[in-house]
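Notes from the pairing session

We agreed to fold both candidates in a single pass and log them together. This is the raw record for the first candidate, unedited. Please don't reformat it; downstream parsing expects exactly this layout.

Candidate A
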Amino acid sequence: MKKLLLLLILFVSVSAFSQTINDYQYVIVPIKFDFLKEKDQFRLSTNTKIMLQKYGFTSFLSTDDIPTEIINNQCSYATAFIEENNNMFVTKIKIVLKDCKQKVLFETEFGTSRTKQLTTAYNEALRMAAKSFDTLNYKYNGTTITEIVSVVPIVTQLPISNDSVSNNQNKNSETFYFAQPTNYGFQVVDSEPKVIMKLYTTSQKNVFIGEKGKSNGVVLSKENQWFFEYYDNGKIVSEPINLKF
């Protein structure tokens, strides 16, 4: 059998993509955070938007009328997330700002509240968490981000058997997709970034209604793997998808 020669060449695209929060003027806040049951529950989304404006960001809710030039360039804005670590006595949350690759640009300390009334508790904790921005000294530096830095493997090989080609193509076919918040749930993008799928939220945290081209079904997590399940010619198809939130 002839030997397989693999030359893995890494190409990094020319890009203005940055990894510092001062390169981001815009922040989009999801209208519904994952741990909550309702849109803008406890006014947590609205108050996060207002808080970010206080510290100099131009912020939008995901349901706002966002300018086309911003929403069409997913890497031109950061996304705000709220993470919780509650127990029966304390409401405990922090604010996390991420880029389009889901890399953390900035996160606050946890803010806490022992108030029993949940609307008051969440917003007291939000205000406490936001104090971390006092030490950030954020100031937008005018950078324009237009493209994602990507690493692309290229495979060059000598003639080999068909079985070996098939096996190696499978090894190099793994692709990751990224879920970005929208007013209906998430849009799934590839590394271009191009929208390849839409996810609509349901009452279950790890279950979404999925829409991909002409296929409609559900996207759900099983054993730490995401699957898109739908019917094709009367048969159920369970398609694994490497999805990053």
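Candidate B (folded immediately after A)
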Amino acid sequence: MINMAVLNLKDIIKYLIKITIVIVFVIGLTKYFSTAKVDVAKQVEGLGNASFTSCLDITIPGIANTNKKEIEEKVRISPLEKMMYLSLGMINSLENKKTTTQEGENKERENNKQEAEEPLQKAETGLETEVQKTNVPEKYTSEYKGVKIRNETKYKLTEEILTPNVTVKKENILIFHTHTCESYTPSEKYQYKQTGNYRTTDRNYTVVRVGRELDRQLQNYGYKVTHSETYHDYPSYTGSYENSYKTVTNLLQKNKNTDIVIDLHRDAISDYSYAPTVKIGDEYAAQLMFVIGGNISKEHPNWQQNLKFAVKIQQKANEMYPGLFKPIILRYASYNQQTAKAANIIEVGSTGNTLDQALISMKYLAKVISEVVK
């Protein structure tokens, strides 16, 4: 391995502030001694008469406010001292933020360790399923052998286009998240602090956690999985797909035998209570939904293969766990699906679902994939 020195932006800012303090201090002293007309003896006498508490007030920011009710401040803080206090405060703030970030990373690593130690629950077959009612009606425009499709493009979906005669390589499966911070309705087990509407930067409670479960389940069936937990919608939501495109293309260069690329999301509509759910056996699982991009303005060569793969998976899911999937949505935008032969978006539940339900869905999804991709 090659050792490389990595400069942290916070450290650079901290060093620049320190250098600035030194420069300002030197300039201030020079100016002071060259222009000061104050009698030194009087200054010494004034300091001599000042109380120890007053000296502390000058030296340590914040002490003066504490002692204000007890004594009257006798010595004024110079502009140079104020500048130094502000600069030191910025340094302390950076240090505190760095400590907080480190604590968050340590917590996430600890949670990852706990997740890895949790026993893997395998999906059973032959279970009864029942789709739970919601206040959002199911919409679709066409159907192919039980697979429903909501076509939002001007493409005419012929039988030839929908026939799932597509084969894919199983050497590697890539999972990533364009909207990394998407989260769910907090449950008793999974409470978290939101940093937006059903969003959080804590990946232990977002679609990243769902991706980890899918990763574990797929590995149980013998697949090699690459799971990227990179933020693409933080600190800015704008440009998420441009950011994730860079991640995907870089990973595909390292894993050239990858056909299956899953961008795992959480659905979002204006009704935050919307929780598409299917009961499988005694469990309640978040419903899944494929979103396939056709991109009519700049047609990418893979869109029909992407659609065929989605139809193939959903056909098997309808056979094994009816209701696990909602209708496939076909839209114009490419969603970076031009990158692979079986690239897709899978929406796992919506804002009204819990993380518990989303995690349960992954064991059934992995089981379906294992029956299709052999």
